[in-house]
Specification:
The complex is a heterodimer of chains A (187) and B (183). Chain A has 187 residues and is an alpha+beta fold. In chain A, 18% of the residues lie in helices and 36% in strands. Chain B has 183 residues and is mainly beta. The chains are: A alpha+beta (187), B mainly beta (183). At the A-B interface, β5, β11, β14 and α3 of A face β1, α1, β8, α2 and β9 of B. β14 of chain A pairs parallel with β1 of chain B.
């Protein structure tokens, strides 16, 4: 079940949802619009590797905007610190942004319950597109949960600004179990 | 309503959700991390035709990884057999992979109630990226449906290999190959 806009507003007041800064004008019928923060991050190398820490660059998006080029993955962030310990957030681009061919996440729309921070946005442009700091870029919906809740305590908790991938951390702790899993299950 | 991680584990224990092999360390607060099977399939030709079964080439990701190139669609599959008669699965990527520009689906993240198989992944990368066999690549969430359930009899229900869409699945083959006879 999805929360309506007025219910999001009520939960923000009750503390069930955390949004800071919060602006009632950004409440939609069944979502909340969020803004693009002014820091942008990307990878220095053209070839990325899921098992290593890829080197990144980071720069400020000026008032006159920055052009995102096709064929690159950029990491942005929400202005707002958002999260909930009671509802599961799912993020999407605003349709106005999608109509420009800009993805704001790369098949990772589901946020863990208990993650509270600025969201890292995975920006990918179909054709070059200029974006501006503070623009309304995405919307978040909130969903009811069934079952006992165990809050997120993972590697991205309380992020500020764009956070690059830490997929390499999975390999440090998971190599052995993954190999065991293969042996056990597939002989 | 979406199932919490604890509820996913409990549903697996009750037999309401299939996640095989099940590994408790892969449970997230409201999803389960699936791993990448080593087999990939790509189209032989650059232009694919929605009316024809495309020629494909199979690849195996070696232990040292395989570099995926932008501009191609890689059909992969989950290592795990995933499905449920009781909850609707939504199969997506993980933010750690999204942050590397790895799409795991092409706008088709919704599973069917009753379909139980190694799920086909539609992998597209923004930049060249090296991926590894059996890495944790995506996550699946489970949703409580409302209403009467109907058994899944779909085309892809029994496949354990990434099948490219075929003309018959797209409802085009009869018109193309043999126009139906008029009485």
């Amino acid at each position: 079940m999805i929360l309506t806009g007025p219910e999001i507003e009520r939960q923000v007041r009750l503390g069930g949802i955390f949004v800071d800064p919060y602006d009632p004008d950004q409440v939609r019928p069944n979502s909340y619009d969020f803004r693009l923060g002014n820091l942008l991050c990307g990878y220095e190398a053209d070839l990325l590797d899921a098992r290593v820490e890829n080197r990144t660059w980071r720069r400020e998006i000026p008032e006159e905007g920055v052009v995102l080029e096709r064929g690159k993955i950029y990491l942005g962030h929400s202005v707002e610190t958002i999260g909930s310990e009671q509802f599961v957030p799912i993020i999407r681009a605003r349709s106005s942004v999608a109509r420009l061919g800009l993805f704001i996440h790369v098949t990772a729309d589901l946020i863990d319950i208990g993650y509270i921070g600025q969201w890292t946005l995975q920006l990918h442009a179909v054709q070059p597109v200029r974006v501006y700091p503070g623009m309304l870029i995405g919307q978040v919906t909130f969903w009811k949960v069934r079952g006992a809740i165990r809050l997120y305590d993972g590697k991205y908790q309380a992020g500020r600004g764009p956070q690059a991938s830490k997929s390499y951390a999975d390999f440090q702790r998971a190599d052995a179990s993954a190999v065991t899993g293969l042996g056990a299950a597939r002989g | 309503m979406v199932l919490s991680g604890s509820e996913i584990s409990a549903s697996v224990a009750r037999g309401e959700i299939t996640l095989e092999p099940f590994e408790p360390s892969l449970v997230n607060p409201n999803s389960y991390n699936y791993r990448l099977d080593p087999w990939l399939r790509v189209f032989r030709d650059d232009l694919v035709d929605a009316r024809r079964t495309p020629e494909t080439v199979d690849l195996v990701i070696p232990p040292e990884g395989l570099v995926l190139e932008p501009g191609f669609l890689y059909l992969g599959r989950t290592f795990e057999v995933i499905g449920s008669d009781d909850y609707v699965p939504s199969l997506i990527g993980r933010s750690s992979l999204g942050r590397l520009g790895v799409y795991l689906q092409v706008s088709a993240d919704l599973g069917n109630l009753g379909a139980r198989h190694q799920w086909t992944l539609e992998i597209v990368v923004c930049q060249r990226v090296r991926l590894y066999p059996l890495m944790r690549i995506g996550q699946v969430s489970f949703w409580v449906p409302v209403g009467e359930k109907k058994p899944y009899t779909g085309y892809f229900g029994d496949f354990s290999w990434p099948e490219p869409a075929t003309p018959s699945v797209l409802g085009l083959a009869p018109a193309m190959e043999a126009p139906p006879e008029r009485p």
